[in-house]
Amino acid sequence: MSHLLSIIVILLLAIAAGLFLYTLFIAKRVEAGMPPEGRFITVMGNRLHYIEQGKGPTILLVHGLSGVAQHFGYSVIEQLARDYHVIAIDRPGSGYSVRHPRSSASLAVQADILGGLIDILRLEKPLLVGHSLGGAVALATALRYPEKARGLALVAPLTHLPGEVSPAFAALTIRWSWLRKLVAWTLATPLSIRKREKILGIVFGPEQPPADFGLRGGGLLGLRPSHFIAASSDLTALEQVLPQMQQQYPRLALPIAVLYGRQDRILNPQEQGQALVDIAPGTTLELIDGGHMLPLTQPEVTADFIRRAMDTAIQPRPSIAKVLDQTDHQLCSDDMPSPPQAAI
Predict the structure, then answer these.
(1) pLDDT at residue number 325
(2) Model confidence over 304-338: pLDDT tens digits?
(3) 93 near 99, Cβ under 8 Å?
(4) pTM of the predicted model, to two decimals?
(5) For the segment 4-14, what is each residue's pLDDT rounded down to a tens digit?
(6) Which of 30, 39, 105, 332 is close enough to 233 for a disulfide, judged by CB 3.0 to 4.6 Å?
(7) CB 59 within 8 Å of CB 151
(8) Looking at the DSSP assignment, which residues form a beta bridge with residue 257?
(9) How far apart are CA 72 and CA 62, in angstroms?
């Protein structure tokens, strides 16, 4: 019996070692074929990779869950850089950015890092553009540092904690750090390759991913174990802060534009986009035919949306402050409690 058990253990270790070597091979091959395109800066101990182009008013682009800066670099950056100073970052742990080992994936911490980046690069009140989970990061930044943002342009943003996780991201719901690393270095990469078509069908559907998404859109970078670890950390940390953020949206005092695809298979436009419009003053929602990955499937539409959001943000917006004053006055006159001031 003990002999059989030893054989099983040796066999399992051999399989794990084989999966580890395969994962390492894929990661090194991807990095060799797709080196960093931008620059690096250290913020709060996190080494951030960012792409910078153009001159003019600044637009700061923040990608979503399991994404990379190249999601915008596929075409959106080039279009916007004709008239604006554009910066797209790899969020901590994603792409070529490295999250400090003791740094949290909390939206509050990511907002602090984004605020620090704005200070270090001396960006003058950029328009914050967030896609998917990047939208939540942009909202967190606006709540914590309202003086540092000109406005928000949110593309298929995560604004409220979803009732359930999309099947495309189910593998990321690992709460134990040791298990997350084990899966990342053994099963995650081969399973991602095997289930690629199914996952992309959910993430991009009903639209088709660009044929060159893997290289030009940065998709292959997601095969590295570090990327899986960061994405899993991001996903499981949402419940720490996002519910508190939702209570604070009525206090946002800057223009917010939201773009959503009606057929989005990752996030519900009504439960996310419309829900933000209903409680955040100065927020507009634009619905178009399309799915979740609009920066890649409809880059021209996305760039035009961001341009219009910038035009609106540049204009004086006294109406927002007026609305907030009227809201506060109404709350007081009705003897209703003010929204809780939860810190994020």
Answers:
(1) 47
(2) 999 999 999 988 655 444 444 444 433 333 333 33
(3) yes
(4) 0.88
(5) 777 777 887 88
(6) 105
(7) no
(8) 153, 284
(9) 9
Please state, in angstroms and rounded to a whole number, the distance separating the CA atoms of residues 209 and 287. 20
Q: How many CB atoms lie within 10 A of CB 115?
A: 19
Instruction: Determine whether 124 is exposed, middle or buried from the number of CB atoms within 10 Å of its CB (0-12, 13-18, 19+).
Output: exposed
- C-alpha atoms less than 13 angstroms from C-alpha of 332 in its C-beta half-sphere: 6
The answer for residues whose C-beta is within 8 angstroms of residue 88's C-beta and 6 or more apart is 38, 50, 51, 60, 61, 63, 69, 72, 73, 77
**Is residue 284 helix, strand or coil?**
strand
Q: How far is CA 333 from CA 324, 325, 330, in A?
A: 14, 12, 5
pLDDT at 340: 33
User: CA 22 → CA 16, 26, 171, 283, distances in Å?
Assistant: 10, 6, 19, 47
Asked if the peptide bond before residue 299 counts as cis, ω within 30 degrees of 0, the response is: no
The Cα–Cα gap between 166 and 18 comes to: 30
Cβ atoms of 230 and 93 within 8 Å: the answer is yes
Query: Which of 3.20.20.140, 3.40.50.1370, 3.40.50.1820, 3.40.1350.10 is the CATH number of 9-331?
Result: 3.40.50.1820
CA distance 214 to 211: 8
Q: How many CB atoms lie within 10 A of CB 116?
A: 17
Q: End-to-end alpha-carbon separation of the chain, Å?
A: 55
Number of H helices, E strands in the chain: 15, 8
Handedness of CA 296, 301, 304, 306 (dihedral sign): negative
DSSP string, 59-106: EEEE--TT--THHHHTTHHHHHTTTSEEEEEPPTTSTT-B--TT----
